[in-house]
Amino acid sequence: MKSVWRQSHSLLRLYWELEGQSRQTLSGVFLYVMVIILVTSYLFGAPEGKVWLGVFWMILLFSAVNVGVLSFVQETGGRRWYYYQLAEPVAVYLAKVAYIFILLLLVSMMTVLLLGMFYGWPFQQPGYLISAILLASLGLAFLFGFLAAIGSQARNSATLSTVISFPLLIGLTMLASKVSEASLLTSFSGELLNMDYLMFIGLDLMIGGLGVLLFAYIWRD
Prior knowledge:
globular, single chain, 8 helices, mainly alpha
C-alpha cells in the first residue's frame, strides 16, 4: 500500500510539472470561466442567489468535463505504456483523481472570486457552499478520472465520457445544489441536511470504489 501512495505522489508531481510546462489545461479552463462570467454578467446584471449558484455549478461541471478528458486524451500511447511499466493502475488512478481534484478546487476558487466581483456575495452561511464545493469536486474527480480513461480508448472520447457519466452527474449536481442553497438562508438547521451529506459522501465513495476496482481493466486494455 505504501508503494501505491509513493507512486501516486510521484505521478502527481509529474502531472503538475507537465502542466506547468504547457499550461494548456489551466489556461483553457480559465479562459472559459472568464468568458462565461463576462457574458452572463452582461446579460443578467446582478442576479439573485439561486442564479449565482446555477452559473457556478454550470461552470464547474463543464470545467470538470474538460479537465477530465484532457488529462487522458493528451497522453500518447507511448506515455501510457511508460506509466504501465512505471506504476500500478490504482496509483495512476489516484494520481489522476488528485490532479483533477486540485484543478477543480483552483477553478472553483477563481469562479467564486470572479462571481463575487461581478454578481456580489449573496451568502449568509458560506460553510454550506464550501462543503458542497469540496464534496462535488471530489465526486467529479473520481468520476471523470475513471470515465476519461474509458473515453481515451475510443475515437469520440469527450462525447462518450459525457454520455456515460450523465446519470451520476445528475445525482452529484442535485445534491450539490441542495446543500449549497442552504448557504443563502439567514438561519438554517444543519440537522435537516444530514441525510443529504450522507448521500453525498456515499455517492462519492461509490464512484471512487468503482473507479479503483475497474480502472485497471480499462486503462491496461
